[in-house]
Design a protein that fits this description.
Helix content: 25-40%
Structural class: alpha+beta
Radius of gyration: 19 Å
Oligomer: single chain
Largest sheet: 8 strands, mixed
Number of helices: 10
CATH topology: 2,3-Dihydroxybiphenyl 1,2-Dioxygenase, domain 1
Strand order of the largest sheet: 2-3-4-1-5-10-7-6
CATH class: Alpha Beta
Number of strands: 10
Order of helices and strands: HHEHEEEHHHHEHEEEEEHH
Length: 300
Amino acid sequence: MTTLDIVLNGLMSKYSERVPDVKRITDAMLNKGIIKSISDIDNDHIAFRTLGVKNLGIGSFEKIFLHLGYSKKDYFYFEGKKLNAFWYAPPSEKYPRIFLSELRVDDLSKPVQNIIKIYTDDLKSDPVDSLNLNDGNAIVDFLHRPLWTTPTWKHYEKLQMESEYAAWVIYNRYYLNHYTISVHDLPDGYNDIYSFNHFLEDQGIILNTAGGKVKVSPDSGLLQSSTVAEMIYAPFANGDVHQIAGSYVEFAERRVLPEFQKIPQKSIKRIHRREGFETNNADKIFESTFSSQTVNIKRE
């Protein structure tokens, strides 16, 4: 098993424990006969969120996956949400793409910047630089351990008022934000996003409605949907416990490019399908963790 395999398996293991919808969806697919085993699911991409401050952000985080063979691709800018992002192509088609975003902290109000700095200013050097990037287990541990102290509920609320992304990262840190089921690789009847969404809703899965349940790129080649983030009971500093948004599951349909339409279905590979990401789609997928969506989740 390669270092990358260890990292991805470790990420998915902890993510699946934290996001019950993963098992709920997988079990439903198995029961319906859509898949014969979990290995039949192709993971289109995984995503992480970061804070754009000194010693953190994309410049720090990307070192891990660049070392593991990923290639940096297109840049994206989300003006309204004050985010930068890049996507990264894997060293082999058997691995997922990576979508990595970063909050433009300097674009926020001074009071919110100051709250973020309370937690991140103690990082005097890039933590990835002291990490053994050939040790998969060490990387998995790093991605699940706190790099700053647990925030107070008061600070979380203040961040959330200006940037729900900021609030999510200050608590959830580098937890895997989502993984993505490649819908186009599923059997007929389930291999388009609309049919698969219908299947999901029949299972009681709540979908993100921001921009519509299906987010479609201008060229109609990339169609995406996602669940609404799981609500988790989160212990804050001073012993406060509140329900906040955790992670979610995404679904993607990458259609065959026009120049490859005549290729037999069984011969179609990743290179024949629409590649990359789309700013407008991703902008709405981000809102899977926003209160405008999670308000639809029934609290226990």
